[in-house]
Amino acid sequence: xxxxxxxxxxxxxxxxxxxxxxxxxxxxxxxxxxxxxxxxxxxxxxxxxxxxx
Length: 53
Description:
single chain
């Protein structure tokens, strides 16, 4: 967290629900629970040498 310039104080240590640690945890949970998808067009597939099965 220090590399991200965030204060590493957990909510249980008085950081509260608006602390940097709580916000980082919330954003990580959202990111890792997200469904991320992409679509490859025929033109892009030939440019990238990607041929879908």
